[in-house]
C-alpha cells in the first residue's frame, strides 16, 4: 500500500525545509535506509533517509523548493499503484485526513468520540502545541523516553525540560519551547517513539486535543486521559525518593547532564538544591554547589565521637564556575568583497592550481639594496626587487606570462605586473605596466603612488586592468610561507614571504644566512610543473645576483 512521505522536523526550531537535492527520481526503487533527499533546515543541510521500501511514485517538491514541516514531499508504494487518493486527502483541510480514524476511536470511547458528520476543525485555532520526538542526532530514527520530568496537568514553562530521551548516541533533554499546561503524554517511560511521533501536547488547560491526536495519527486519543490516573498513582514515588538515604541519589529529580557532572565531581545529589520546576536539579545547580558548607555540619557533630587519631575526610575538589557572554557583530558584505568572493571562487574552482616553492638566498640582494639606497632618488624596497626580477624572468619564460581563454591560450609579449595591495575593504591589484623596461627607482615610485591611491580610494579602473602576472607579498608581516589564488585571467601568481635569518650551508660550513621563500601558484591548463620550476630558477638567480637586473 502506498505511503506518504512528509517533510520531517529535523531541528527543534525548524518550521520548513528546502529540498536541496533529490537522490532518487520517480520510478526508482527505494529501500529502507536509502537517502531520499538532502534537506536544508535553518541550521544545516542533512540527509533524509527512507523508512520504508517501495517505488518512488511521486515527488511533491522540486529541488530548491521549500515546504512546511509535515507537508507531503513524496509517495512510496508498489510500482503502478494509484496514489492520487492520498494526494487528495493530503490536499484537503488538516482535519479531513483523520476522518477515517474517527470510527475506531469511537469504539473505544463512545462518549468522547465526535460525530462522523462533525465539521472540519481548523487545527491552528486550537490553543495547544504538539511536541514531537525531535531528531537529536544525524543517525537517530527513534528515541526512548527515559524519564518524564512533568505529569499531565502540570504547568510548564517554555524553557523547561519535559523529558530525558535516550538516542543512539546519548541521553539528552527534550525542551517543549511552549508555556502552558501539559495536556497529554503519548509515550510512557521506557517506551520508544519514532522521530516526529507525538510524545506530548502542551496548551491551555481544558483544551480538547482530540483533533490534534487524530491529525498526528501516532497514538489513540484515549490515552490522553489515562496518564492522569497513571501519574496520580505514581505521585508517591517522588515523595518517597526525597526520603531515601543521602547515600542513594538515584531517585533524585535531576537532568542527565547534571547527574553526570555530579558523578564526575563525587557530589551526592541529595545535598544539592534544584532550581528548576519542582526542585529538579540542572547543570547550573551542580556547578554552583559548594560541598564545604554542607559537609561541615556533619563533621562538626561527629567530632566528639570520633577517635582522636581519625583523619578528616578530604572534600572533593570543586573547580570555580566560569561564565561568559556570547556576542558577535555583523556587517553587510561590501560590493568589493562580493567581487573578490566571486572572482577568487571562480579562479580556485575553475583553474586547476598547482604550487611550486623555492628558497632564495637574499644576502647579496640586501647588500645591493643598501648600496643603491645611498644614491637612489627614492628608497628601493625588497618588493621592488621582486617586481623587477619577475618582469625580467617573464621575458625569458613567456609561458608564465600567458592567459587561458577557453578555446585558446594567449601568450603575452608585453609584461604588466599586478601588485596586490591590502585595503580595509579587501584587496586591490594596481598594475605596473611594461615593468621589464623600467628601472628599480621607477618601479618604486609607481608602487608607492598606487598604494597611496588604493588606501585613499582614488585608484582608477584603468590602473587595475591588463595584468599578465601578479605578485602577492606578505613579507612585511613576517610570514614564513603561503600560497595565493591566481588572479584570472593570469596563468600564475607569486606569493612572497618574509626574509628569515636562518643558518645555511655554504661551502660545506654552516653560516648565518637570509632566506626568502616564494611560492608560484600556476594554472595547470597553461603551465606545466617543469615550466614553473624553470621560471623560479631564473628568479632565484636574478635575486641572488642582483647585478643581473641591471644588464
Describe this structure in words.
It is built from 13 helices and 26 strands. It has 551 residues and is an alpha+beta fold. Among the domains are: 3-90, Beta Barrel (OB fold (Dihydrolipoamide Acetyltransferase, E2P)), CATH 2.40.50; 128-207, OB fold (Dihydrolipoamide Acetyltransferase, E2P), CATH 2.40.50.100; 338-549, Chloramphenicol acetyltransferase-like domain (Chloramphenicol Acetyltransferase). It has a 6-stranded mixed β-sheet. It has a 4-stranded antiparallel β-sheet with strand order 1-8-6-3, covered by helices on one side. The chain is elongated, with a radius of gyration of 36 Å.
Largest sheet strand order: 17-26-25-24-20-23
Euclidean distance between termini CA atoms? 86 Å
CATH superfamily label of the domain at 338-549: Chloramphenicol acetyltransferase-like domain
Rounded radius of gyration (Å)? 36 Å
Averaging pLDDT over every residue, what do you get?
81
Segments where pLDDT lies below 50 for 5+ residues? 92-118, 217-245, 293-308
Bin the helical content.
Answer: 25-40%
CATH topology of the domain at 338-549: the name is Chloramphenicol Acetyltransferase
Based on helices, strands and strand pairing, what is the structural class? Answer: alpha+beta
The CATH first-level class of the domain at 338-549 comes to: Alpha Beta
Give the overall silhouette. Answer: elongated
Amino acid at each position: 500500500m502506498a505511503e506518504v512521505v512528509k517533510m520531517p522536523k529535523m531541528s527543534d526550531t525548524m518550521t520548513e525545509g528546502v529540498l536541496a537535492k533529490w537522490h532518487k527520481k520517480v520510478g526508482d526503487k527505494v529501500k529502507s535506509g536509502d537517502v531520499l533527499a538532502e534537506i536544508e533546515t535553518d541550521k544545516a543541510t542533512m540527509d533524509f533517509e527512507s523508512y520504508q521500501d517501495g517505488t518512488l511514485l511521486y515527488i511533491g517538491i522540486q529541488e530548491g523548493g521549500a515546504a512546511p514541516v509535515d507537508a507531503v514531499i513524496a509517495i512510496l508504494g508498489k510500482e503502478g499503484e494509484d496514489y492520487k487518493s492520498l494526494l487528495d486527502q493530503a490536499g484537503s483541510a488538516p482535519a479531513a485526513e483523520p476522518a477515517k480514524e474517527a470510527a475506531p476511536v469511537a469504539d473505544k470511547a463512545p462518549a468522547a468520540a465526535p460525530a462522523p458528520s462533525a465539521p472540519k476543525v481548523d487545527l491552528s485555532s486550537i490553543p495547544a502545541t504538539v511536541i514531537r520526538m525531535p531528531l537529536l542526532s544525524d543517525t537517530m530514527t527513534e528515541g526512548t523516553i527515559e524519564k518524564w520530568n512533568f505529569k499531565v496537568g502540570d504547568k510548564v514553562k517554555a524553557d523547561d525540560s519535559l523529558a530525558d530521551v535516550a538516542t543512539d548516541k546519548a541521553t539528552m533533554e527534550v525542551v517543549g519551547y511552549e508555556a502552558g499546561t501539559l495536556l497529554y503524554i503519548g509515550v510512557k517511560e521506557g517506551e520508544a517513539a519514532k522521530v516526529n511521533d507525538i510524545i506530548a501536547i502542551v496548551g491551555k488547560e481544558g483544551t480538547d486535543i482530540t483533533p490534534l491526536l487524530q491529525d498526528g495519527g501516532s497514538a489513540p486519543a484515549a490515552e490522553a486521559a489515562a496518564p492522569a490516573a497513571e501519574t496520580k498513582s505514581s505521585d508517591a514515588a517522588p515523595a518517597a525518593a526525597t526520603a531515601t538515604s543521602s547515600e542513594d541519589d538515584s531517585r533524585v529529580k535531576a537532568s542527565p547532564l547534571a547527574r553526570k557532572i555530579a558523578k564526575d565531581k563525587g557530589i551526592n545529589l541529595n545535598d544539592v538544591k534544584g532550581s528548576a520546576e519542582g526542585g529538579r536539579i540542572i547543570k547550573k545547580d551542580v556547578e554552583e554547589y559548594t560541598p564545604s558548607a554542607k559537609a561541615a555540619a556533619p563533621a562538626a557533630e561527629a567530632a566528639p565521637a570520633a577517635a582522636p587519631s581519625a583523619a578528616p575526610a578530604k572534600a572533593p575538589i570543586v573547580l570555580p564556575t566560569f561564565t561568559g557572554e556570547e556576542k558577535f557583530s555583523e556587517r553587510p558584505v561590501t560590493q568589493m568583497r562580493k567581487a573578490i568572493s566571486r572572482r577568487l571562487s571562480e579562479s580556485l574552482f575553475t583553474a586547476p592550481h598547482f604550487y611550486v616553492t623555492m628558497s632564495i638566498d637574499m644576502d647579496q640582494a640586501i647588500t645591493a639594496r643598501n648600496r643603491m639606497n645611498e644614491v637612489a632618488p627614492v628608497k628601493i624596497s625588497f618588493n621592488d626587487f621582486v617586481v623587477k626580477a619577475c618582469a625580467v624572468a617573464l621575458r625569458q619564460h613567456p609561458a608564465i606570462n600567458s592567459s587561458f581563454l577557453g578555446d585558446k591560450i594567449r601568450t603575452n609579449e608585453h609584461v604588466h605586473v599586478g601588485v596586490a595591495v591590502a585595503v580595509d575593504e579587501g584587496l586591490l591589484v594596481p598594475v605596473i605596466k611594461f615593468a621589464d623596461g623600467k628601472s628599480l627607482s621607477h618601479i618604486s615610485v609607481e608602487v608607492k603612488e598606487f598604494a597611496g591611491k588604493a588606501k585613499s580610494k582614488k585608484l582608477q579602473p584603468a590602473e587595475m586592468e591588463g595584468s599578465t602576472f601578479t605578485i602577492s607579498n606578505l613579507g612585511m608581516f613576517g610570514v614564513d610561507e603561503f600560497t595565493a589564488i591566481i588572479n584570472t585571467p593570469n596563468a600564475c601568481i607569486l606569493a612572497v614571504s618574509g626574509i628569515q635569518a636562518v643558518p645555511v650551508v655554504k661551502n660545506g660550513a654552516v653560516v648565518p644566512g637570509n632566506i626568502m621563500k616564494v611560492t608560484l601558484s600556476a594554472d595547470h591548463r597553461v603551465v606545466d610543473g617543469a615550466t614553473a620550476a624553470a621560471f623560479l630558477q631564473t628568479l632565484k638567480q636574478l635575486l641572488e645576483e642582483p647585478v643581473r637586473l641591471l644588464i
